[in-house]
Design goal:
The protein is built from 21 helices and 9 strands. By secondary structure, it is α/β, with parallel strands linked by helices. A 5-stranded parallel sheet has the order 4-5-6-3-7, with helices on both faces. Strands 1-2 form a two-stranded antiparallel sheet. The chain has a two-stranded antiparallel sheet with strand order 8-9. β1 (59-62) and β2 (65-68) form a beta hairpin.
Amino acid sequence: MSQDTRELIERMHKATKLEEIDQAVPFNVPITPDHPFFVDFQGLRGDFEDRIVYRSLNVKQDGDAFTFDYSNNSFNKTLLFLGGMRGSGKTSELAKYAQNLNTKDCFFVVTCNLDVELTMDNLEYMDILIFQLEKLTQKLKKHDIELNNNALERLSDWFAERIVEVNASIEGEVKLEGGFDSEKSILGKLLGLVGSLKVGVTGTKTRAKIIRTTIKDRFVDFASKFNEYIEEANTALRKQKKGQEVLFIIDGIEKALSTEIANKLIIEEQGYIQQIKAYTIFTLPIHLMRERRRLEQFARVESFPFVRIQEKNGTEIPESIDKFKEFIKNRIDEKLFESDDIMHQMISLSGGSPRELLRIIETSAFYADEKKGVLDQASLDKATKRLASQAANFLTEEHLNKLKELREFNSSGREIAYDDVLQELLENIIVMEYNDGNYKRVSPLVEKSKIYQERVIS
């Protein structure tokens, strides 16, 4: 998380006036478990439960205690892909997992937010690996973890040699630097070298390509050095009672600016991914869930769905509604809602997406009468009309036919078959997915649109 994001989160406070709502509902800011806004939706996502993540990582949970037995899992090194739709709350949930698992009896958690520190429109897997090394080394240094100097020197020397190779290939560009930090430590030297490479891959495309190619050409050697470093860190962590193993949480791939980039990262470069031996959680864009069977050949893949606010037959789930009311009241004083029913309607329109709910509240506040000073039916109706129109604006004939088919299948209690049209609707949150993907429904906002009412309902 960047310093700017941390400062933004610290400034966010519960709204007690209409004009304060905007700062309380930014839908692209992840909320961590220690923030007053945080709400735990555990047990409300249908088939998905937190224990799926913990068991995938070979973690034993006993109440609020989480333990990992490295002696029984030294060769398991789970790679978990956690896939789901945008706005389902993955980032906040990952922050919760990081907090729960980051203990001396469990993991030394290293979170890597790709969209915060890397260039998302020109991202490759080599960039992620360099970033992982930088974040791990920074955290080891921060916690004064003493590693075997021989292992550190071997990895530092390897990177120093690669930087020499890169600089020899660069023409007309600023050369890479790297070296000791102010403390003149070997760990500081490694941090300087890795940091220099990270700056390089986030710079010009020419320099980034040279760095990536240099590492790829020696990837077997690189992977060996990477894995050796992880194991040296694991040994030091256990010895110094800071954790049992390193766990990387890599978030933000779904925020890549194109599906092509995400495909290359996960599918085309999976051969590289398989060579890295470290416990890792990757978030997975919804469109790559179609590759589940291929990915399951070397990793675990789990679907992270929206919160279920109603059953398939349309019956509301009271526990989910109440939890979303808590979600709202943590951020906004309930006196700013004309009635509890306004809040209830907003939750229903969100379809169980925390992000969609924040968008509905924000837009309603935009239309609210400043003299009245509350969110009322008039402001909600205007917000609904606007958001529904925006959501349905680019629906094609093919999309509308698929939505009609989905409505018919849901009415008869049948599951709709997957195809590329349905996938496109999922990616654009026209259709929302629940459980493990076996329950899909049209976004409630889309259902309110004029074109849906005319072409699907009538």
